[in-house]
C-alpha cells in the first residue's frame, strides 16, 4: 500500500504538469488574440479610409450641384471627420472620435499637458496593446489633420481647434 505522502506528491506532480500545460495554452492564445486584434484594427482602418474617400468624392459631387454653405450639418455614423470650423458641433464626429477628443479636452480643462496615443488609449480604458494604441493614434492623427486636435512634433496630442485647409474642398463659410 502506497504511503499517504507518496499519493499527495503524485497528485501534486500531476497538478503542476496541468498548470504548466494551461500556462502554455494561455500564452499561445494571447498571441493568437493579439494577431486577431491587429487584423481587426487593420480592417477597421481600411473601412474608415474607404468611407472617407467616398465622402470626399460625395463632397466633390455636391460642390458641383450646390455649395457646402447651403448644406445642414448632420451627425453621422461611421468615421467621417470633417474639417473643423467655427460653430461645428462635436456631435458630427463618430462616438470613438468624440471620446478621444473628450479625453484631451478634459485634460486641457484640468490644466494638464498633451498625451501620447498610448496614454489616450489607457485613459479610454482600452488597454495598451499595440493594436489598440495604433487605432487610437490613427483617430488622433485624423482629428489633428482636420483641425480638431493639435499634434506636437513629439507625436503627442493636445486639445485645440484650428481651421485647416483641405485640398479639393469648397471653402467653409
Could you characterize what this model shows?
The protein has 173 residues and is mainly alpha-helical. The protein has one domain (4-159). Helix content is 58%, strand content 3%. The protein contains four helices and two strands, in the order H-H-H-H-E-E. It has helices at 4-65, 95-109, 117-123, 130-145; strands at 149-151, 157-159. A two-stranded antiparallel ribbon has the order 1-2. A hairpin with a 5-residue loop joins strand 1 and strand 2. Helix 2 (95-109) crosses helix 4 (130-145) and helix 3 (117-123) crosses helix 4. The chain starts with a helix and ends in a 14-residue tail after the last strand. The model is unreliable at 67-71 and 169-173 (pLDDT under 50).
Give a brief rundown of this model:
The chain has about 170 residues and is mainly α. About 60% of the residues lie in helices and about 5% in strands. Helix 3 packs across helix 4 (about 130-145).
- What is the helix/strand order? HHHHEE
Strand order of the largest sheet: 1-2
Main beta-sheet strand count, sense and barrel state: 2 strands, antiparallel
Strand content: under 5%
> Helix coverage percent of residues?
55-70%
- The rounded distance between the terminal residues' Cα atoms is 93 Å
pLDDT averaged residue by residue: 83
Q: Tally of extended strands?
A: 2
Estimate nothing, just give the exact number of structural domains: 1
Shape: elongated
The radius of gyration computed from the alpha-carbon positions, rounded to a whole number of angstroms, is 25 Å
Low-confidence stretches: 67-71, 169-173
Quickly give the structural class: mainly alpha
Question: What's the helix count?
Answer: 4
Amino acid at each position: 500500500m502506497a504511503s499517504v505522502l507518496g499519493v499527495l506528491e503524485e497528485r501534486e506532480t500531476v497538478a503542476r504538469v496541468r498548470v504548466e500545460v494551461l500556462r502554455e495554452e494561455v500564452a499561445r492564445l494571447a498571441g493568437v488574440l493579439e494577431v486577431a486584434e491587429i487584423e481587426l484594427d487593420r480592417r477597421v482602418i481600411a473601412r474608415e479610409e474607404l468611407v472617407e474617400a467616398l465622402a470626399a468624392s460625395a463632397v466633390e459631387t455636391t460642390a458641383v450641384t450646390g455649395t457646402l454653405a447651403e448644406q445642414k450639418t448632420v451627425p453621422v455614423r461611421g468615421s467621417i471627420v470633417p474639417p473643423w470650423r467655427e460653430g461645428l458641433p462635436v456631435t458630427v464626429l463618430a462616438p470613438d472620435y468624440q471620446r478621444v477628443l473628450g479625453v484631451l479636452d478634459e485634460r486641457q480643462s484640468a490644466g494638464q499637458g498633451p498625451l501620447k496615443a498610448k496614454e489616450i488609449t489607457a485613459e479610454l480604458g482600452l488597454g495598451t496593446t499595440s493594436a489598440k494604441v495604433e487605432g487610437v493614434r490613427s483617430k488622433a492623427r485624423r482629428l489633428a489633420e482636420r483641425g480638431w486636435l493639435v499634434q506636437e512634433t513629439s507625436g503627442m496630442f493636445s486639445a485645440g481647434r484650428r481651421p485647416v485647409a483641405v485640398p479639393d474642398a469648397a471653402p467653409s463659410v
